[in-house]
Structures are given as structure tokens and as C-alpha cells.
Amino acid sequence: MMEYLQRRRDRVEERLEAVLDGVEPDELADEVRHVALAGGKRVRPTVTVLVCEALGGEPADAVEFAVGIELVHNASLVIDDIIDESDVRRGTPSAWAAFGHGPAIIASDGLLGEAFALFSSDERAMQAVTESMVELGEGEATELVSQPTNETEYIELARRKTGALFRAAAELGAIAADADAYTVEAFGQYAERVGVAFQMRDDVLDATADAEKLGKPAGQDAEMDRPSFVEVTDLTPAEANERARAESDAALEALATVDTDDSQATEYLQDLAEFVVVRER
């Protein structure tokens, strides 16, 4: 199992490094490499590749889009760390802590520029990513001025802040496989639900896990006076995990509506929906 996924991650990693090797000037190259090559689970690009394969495509068909969505994700993390004043990301100094606020913002812009160069050859890919970034921006802006006060508001915020990029990752995989609009939407629904479940679990981990295991500061939500899912709903961590599992189940239901060609890739997508609610970091 791990070897199967690792081969796909390695392909993404190789292309990611090649893209970043072409960044100029050297100062910007150093900054974007610090951000994008500091580790990370590469969940979104792996979803892109797996969805493409599930629909009969080859990994090579999806790797450009996979790298692109990972770059968009990393660009958003740079801004998140500035907003949160978080000086650690993936166990290393965050971009602003390493280089300062100005260079970090420029690095975020550089990552987005490289990403959109990878999407620019396909109109549907551009639309999918643009829509996800609008959602992400609206979510970030909403959170800055108004905190969620109930479960409905929280889920809408999680859908925008986390689910939107997951949705784009899956949609890009379907687009790379030249899928029809119904199939693209079904995979988008699947991934958006996975993203919401991921965020719910993230909030539980932030409240309960050890910082060393997380690879980033724990208790960040409380420190930033930002209500987590547990606080907004008054649920226990166990009950919050059950809500995350319900989102995971809805993701699996969306996935089941699609006829797929590659059962192994589909199985890994099913496993991902289940894994996000039990992960420990």
C-alpha cells in the first residue's frame, strides 16, 4: 500500500522540485523552496493523481495539476502563518519567521504564479482553481471579522478554508482524465467532505495533541482566540470526531456515485476519507 502511494508522491515531488529549480531570482527561489520542500503529507496532489487514475488516466496526465494545487496550498499556508503569527510550520521555521513578512508575502505570490503557469493550458483547470481560491479568500476574510458561533457556521467556514482546495484537487484529477461535468462534480463533492472532516480532526488535534507530534504549535486556536469546532459546538473531542466521521461517510457516498476504471486508485481514495478522521498529526 505505502509503496503504491509513495511512487505517486515521488513523481509529484520530482516535478515540484523541477518547477522550483526554474524560479528566479535566487532569493525568491530559496524562499519558495523553503516553503514547498519543508515536508508535508502531499495529500492534495496525491488526490489529484488518484482521481485521474480512478477514471482511467495515467499519473503523468495529472502531475502538472497535482504540483500546481500543492503550490497553491503552500502559498495559502504562508499567509495563514503570518495571520496566526505562527513561527513553526512542519517542524521548521515558517516563511515569515525565516525571512520576514515582506519576503514571505512575495514567496506566496511566487508560489501562486508558478501554480497558475501549470494550470494555464486548460480552461477547466483554471476555472476550478480560481473558484477554490475565491472560496478560500472569502473564508479567510470572514474568519477575520466574524468567528463562527454554531456548527452550521463552522462547517461553512471549514468548507471554504479547507474543503475548497481539496475539492479543486479532486476536480483537477477528473479534468486531467477528461471526465464529464457530472463526474467532476461528484469527485468535487467527495473531496470537499474529506476536507471538512480533515479540518474537524485538525481542531481536535489542536486541542488535544502534543506539539512535537503535530509538527506545529498545539493550542493555537485557543491562543488566537479562534473558536475550534470543539468550542463552537460544546462537543467533547470524541463527539467532534463522530461529526468528522459523518462528513467522511458523506464523502464515501459521493464517491460511490461514480463509475471508476481503476479499483486500486478508488480504494485509496476510500481509505483517505477514513484516514482523515483517525490521523494523529
From TrEMBL:
The keyword Metal-binding applies. PROSITE patterns: POLYPRENYL_SYNTHASE_1, POLYPRENYL_SYNTHASE_2. GO terms for biological process: isoprenoid biosynthetic process. One of its GO terms (molecular function) is prenyltransferase activity. Keywords: Isoprene biosynthesis, Magnesium, Metal-binding, Transferase. Its cofactor is Mg(2+). The keyword Transferase applies. InterPro entries: Isoprenoid_synthase_dom_sf, Polyprenyl_synt, Polyprenyl_synt_CS. Belongs to the FPP/GGPP synthase family. This is Polyprenyl synthetase. It comes from Halomicrobium mukohataei (strain ATCC 700874 / DSM 12286 / JCM 9738 / NCIMB 13541).
